[in-house]
Design brief:
Blueprint lengths: L7 H5 L19 E10 L5 H14 L3 E7 L2 E10 L2 H14 L1 H4 L5 E9 H10 L10 E4 L1
Parallel strand pairs: 2-5
Antiparallel strand pairs: 1-3, 1-4, 2-3
Length: 142
């Protein structure tokens, strides 16, 4: 293995080695996976229009796992990669507004947001009280 002087690796982007017996620690600012559930609601709109808007959003952003909808509310569930909960929540809170025009989403208010880490998501599912895995994937009525 090649040894790199301290400070040189960061400036050149080179790889560093770990001496025998040392342990590797994951940097704290590495991205993590967060399960996001975003809920929006507002005045009732035709179901066909809402379904088409949610399908356009899913097409533009294939990271969306599932969307459920009714005439006056919708729920979007997906995985977000972010450094921490604050970053994941900030992205989620911008999602609806930033894609209203491109996807044709209604001008609804965000009324709910849950962001949990991957471990918490899997723990809830295993204990039977968390959101079930998003199956079937896609856009579906409530």
């Amino acid at each position: 293995m090649r040894r790199v002087r301290p400070g040189v690796a960061a400036s050149r982007g080179a790889l560093t080695s770990v001496a025998a017996g040392d342990t590797y620690e994951e940097p704290e600012d590495m991205p993590r996976l967060w399960h996001v559930t975003l809920s929006a609601s507002g005045p009732e709109i035709p179901l066909k229009d809402l379904r088409q808007a949610l399908e356009r959003l899913a097409h533009d952003h294939p990271f969306l796992l599932t969307s459920r909808y009714a005439g006056d509310h919708a729920e979007i569930r997906y995985w977000e990669e972010a450094r921490d909960l604050h970053d994941a929540a900030a992205v989620a809170l911008r999602l609806w507004g930033e894609h209203r025009q491109s996807a044709g989403l209604p001008p609804w208010e965000i009324v709910g947001l849950e962001v949990i880490d991957r471990e918490t998501y899997h723990q809830r599912v295993a204990e039977g009280y968390g959101p079930l895995p998003a199956t079937p994937v896609g856009v579906h009525p409530f």
